[in-house]
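Quick illustration, no need to memorize.
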Amino acid sequence: MDLGNWLDYRLFDNTLLTWAASAGLFFAVLAALLAARRFAQSRLRKITDSSASSPLQVAGHVVRRTKAWFLLVVALYLGSGMLTLPATAEAVFLRVLVLALLVQMGLWTAAGLTKTLQLRREDQFAEDPGAVAAIDVLGFVLRVSVWAIVLLLVLDNLGVNITALVAGLGVGGIAVALAAQNILSDLFASLSIVLDRPFAVGDFLIIDDYLGNVEQVGLKTTRIRSLSGEQLIFSNNDLLGSRIRNYGRMFERRIVFSLGVTYQTPAEQLRRMPDIIREVIEAQDKVRFDRAHFQKYGDFALVFEIVYYVVSSDYAHYMDVQQNINLLIYERFADEGIEFAYPTQTLYVSGSR
């Protein structure tokens, strides 16, 4: 049998020449699609390395989520177009192409949303840490929504009655909600934290006997890094039910302290003491003096109460200020000859015969 007869040999209603042309088209299309994907990825990578444009970064991330199996399905469908196939086989090829396209579109959409929210998160972290948790929750909700839509479209293309399925899921959802009340309460608590923003990532919190900086607000739990280094994990629902002291929202700190001098201090020096204390406090940086008063007669001292404000939430700055105030008051009192009081007892002994 010569070559011409071989090429005219029919296999499944198609000649070998047609099969060869179909295979050639398949490999050519596949090679072209893979090369185009590689070129686009390389080009976008170079652009995003030298450009801070968010749309280009999103496009590069989306292109990298293009799967080889999707390109294979596209090439296989185009290659099969040269063949004479039964209606059933053509329907199968078309359905596989549609399903692959739906899944790939889901990957593209999820990748685009993830990258967009990631860039948004990075921009917002410095300006508004409270928005970070909102972006995380929004990203989760959007990804779940995208894949839920993809799943429904896939099932619809497979011939499943999604109307009945959605109705069944609604009834099943009620049962699941009753069985997972704790999880759902934590989920809604996380939404409350995101929307109401009682605290944000980076805030310093005191919750009962626990204290630390907020590291992450999750869907079920909030993670806090304590001062001693360990990670504290709170249920969102329990956290909202607690009394939270948020030092991250502190704009200024009110300081009240007392000092006592001996009962032997002359009245003239007692009158000068508020002015001395005022001068010492007003000499400090980021400090607002409020008052200094001779408050009471103590058991062993004449007690003065002093109030001032540190216009900063930084605890280290407050401690530096308080230390400077204590040292300067000590020096000024020494110069004035004013003595600090300390616990003493005087014993009176009466003589007897």
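Residues 87-127 form the longest helix (41 residues).
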